[in-house]
Specification:
Blueprint (H helix, E strand, L loop, with lengths): L1 H16 L7 H17 L5 H15 L2 H9 L8 H24 L5 E11 L2 E9 L4 E10 L5 E8 L2 E2 H15 L2 H16 L1
Antiparallel strand pairs: 1-2, 2-3, 3-4, 4-5
Helix pairs in contact: 2-3, 4-6, 5-7
Length: 196
């Protein structure tokens, strides 16, 4: 009997130590999008509470540094370490204001998660559709597997318009004529203007 208890204990220990199967890209995106929908559908929450909850979900879903690198492209290397540290939160605040109001205007659309399409090694596009009463809007989430093995979003493509490419063209235009400090000043002004 004692041997059986020891054997079962060892088996449970081994099974407990077995690695948990990581979520697939589509499972990860579905879980995060469903968290967003849960916040948006909660009519008892005030707007500022919703914004704060969405901020937390954004941090879970997106890799701000990876998103910033993609948006800046080759210009990322032109920024010093100090400029990068300032750029990350400034850019996040710009994104939050630009897209936060649109997200809060959500009116109970249904989201359909269609499929995963491999892009490259450790990068996948999760194709979804937002279905309204009048139309379907394709929304594709581009994710990558980070060092800890978690899928994180680095781009969203809505109706064939990439958030990354949109900002990259703006940043390229600014940095073709100006300096990283001038780009940071533009972002500071946008954030300051948003707060007034």
């Amino acid at each position: 009997m004692k041997r059986l208890v020891v054997a079962l204990s060892l088996l449970l220990l081994v099974l407990g130590a077995a690695p948990v199967q990581a979520a697939t890209p589509i499972e990860t995106v579905r879980a995060e999008v469903n968290k967003v929908l849960e916040v948006l559908r909660n009519k008892s929450l005030k707007e500022e509470v919703k914004r704060e909850k969405l901020r937390v979900i954004y941090h879970e879903m997106f890799d701000q540094e990876e998103l910033s690198k993609w948006c800046l492209g080759r210009n990322w290397n032109k920024l010093s370490e100090a400029q990068r540290k300032e750029f990350l939160p400034l850019f996040q605040q710009v994104l939050e204001k630009t897209y936060g109001d649109r997200i809060l205007a959500y009116s109970d659309e249904k989201i359909v998660f269609d499929r995963e399409v491999p892009i490259a090694n450790n990068r996948v596009e999760v194709q979804t559709r937002a279905i309204t009463k009048s139309k379907e809007v394709p929304m594709n989430y581009r994710v990558f597997k980070n060092k800890s093995g978690t899928w994180k979003c680095y781009d969203i493509v809505v109706e064939n318009v990439s958030l990354v490419m949109n900002y990259r063209s703006q940043f390229n235009e600014i940095l073709a004529k100006g300096t990283p400090d001038e780009l940071l000043e533009i972002l500071r002004k946008k954030v300051k203007g948003q707060k007034t």
